[in-house]
Amino acid sequence: MAKRGKKRGGIYTTHNKVKVIRGGADFFNAIEQIADSATYSLHLQTYIFDGDETGTRVADALIRAAGRRVMVYLLLDAYASQHLSGEFRKKLVDGGVHLGFFSPVFSGNFFYMGRRLHHKLIVADARVCMVAGINVSDRYNDMGETRAWLDWAVHAEGEVARGINDVCIRTWDRSVLRSRCKATAPPSFPLPTEQCLVRIRRNDWVYKRMEITNNYRQLLRHATTHVTIMTSYFWPPQRLLRCMAAASRRGVKIKLILTAQADVPFAKYTERYLYNWLFRHGIEIYEYAQNVLHGKVGVFDNEVMTAGSYNVNNISAFASVELNLEVRNAAITKEVSDKFDAIINDDCFQITEADFATTNNILKRFFYYLSYRVTHMVFYLFTFYFTQRAEQN
After folding, report:
1. Among 210, 49, 13, which residue's Cα sits nearest to residue 121?
2. CATH 3.30.870.10 residue window(s) in the chain
3. 170 φ/ψ angles, rounded to the nearest 5 degrees
4. What phi and psi values does residue 85 have, to the nearest 5 degrees?
5. Sequence-distant (≥ 6) Cβ neighbours of residue 244 within 8 angstroms
6. What is the pTM of this model?
7. Is 291 exposed, middle or buried (0-12, 13-18, 19+ CB in 10 A)?
8. What are 182-209's pLDDT values in tens digits?
9. Rounded distance between C-alpha atoms, residue 274 and residue 260, angstroms
C-alpha cells in the first residue's frame, strides 16, 4: 500500500521492484525491453530525440509497439528536438506513434519563453517505468569503442509506474492541442512481491511545484554522516547552497562529482566560480575525466537516493519541467554509493584548494566571475514568467 510521505509531501509507494542502471547500452536495451513488453499503452517523454542510429533504434521499438495496437505517445521538447527531420517525424506518425512537442519557445497566451520539458522517462502499461537523466542520442549510448556519457536511470516495476503513467497523461494533455490521451485506464497488473519505498518528485515552477529542490534541501538538513551528489552544470539556488554549508558545519562529509569535460564550456566556467566557496565550507570536489558527466543523482547516508532529470542548478529549479524518483532503500542506496566511490577512485581527480589556486590566475578568476554573472543575467532574461498557473490535477 502507498503511504504518506513526511512533510511537504507526496506519497511513498511500497510495492516496487527497483534497480539502478548505468547509461549506455544497458539503458537503451532496457528501453527496447520496456517497449516490446507493452500491451496497452506506452509513453516516452524526453528532452532530446535525435534521428541518429540510437534514435532510429528507439523509434523502431515504438513503431513495433504501435503495430501491436499499443497506444504509443512520444512527447519531445520543441526546442531541444527541433532538428528532428520531417522525414523522421513522418516515419513515426505513419508507424502509428502519437507524436507531440512540448511548449514552443514562444507560447501564445502564456509567455513562458524559457520553460522546457526536461523529462527523460518511459512507462509501459502503468506497470513498468524508467526515469533517467539520459536523452535519446548516440552520445548517450555506447557506440563501438566510444563510451556513452556518464549517466543513470532508475528502473521500477510496480505502484510507482502508475504514478508515472498519470504524470505522462497530464503532461501530454496540457502540451498537445486537440489531442487527448486515449489510453487513460490501463488494466491492472499483479504488483511485485518486493517492497521498496519510492515516490515521484517533480519540479515545475509554473505550476508551483518545487518538490525536487525542496527534497534536496530536506535531505541535506537531515543528513548525519555523508552526502555524495553527482551532477552536471552545478549552479544551485542560494538556499540549497546554504543547506550544504549547514550540513558541512554539522560534520556531514559532502562530496561533489562534477565533470571535467563539459559539453557546454561556458557552464563549466560558471560552475568553477563556486569552487572557492565550496572549499571554504569543507566540501570535496571531484572531476570525472573519462568522458562527459551527465548524471543527476544524490545519495544521502546510504539510506535514500534521488535520481532523474534534475540538475542541481537554477534552470532545473525555476525553468524546466523535471522529474526524479526518490528511493528510500538502504541496499540500493549503498550499492549506488559504492559505485560512486569506485568512480571517484578510478575515473576522477580531486580538485583541492591548493591545486585550484595554482591554476586560478587573476584572468581566470575574472572570466569565471563574468561567466557566473552573465549566466544569471541570461537566465533571468529568458525564464521570466508573468504569473504562475494554478495547479490542476
Report:
1. 49
2. 15-179+186-195, 203-382
3. -65, -40
4. -65, 155
5. 220, 236, 254, 281, 283
6. 0.91
7. middle
8. 866 677 888 999 999 999 999 998 788 9
9. 15
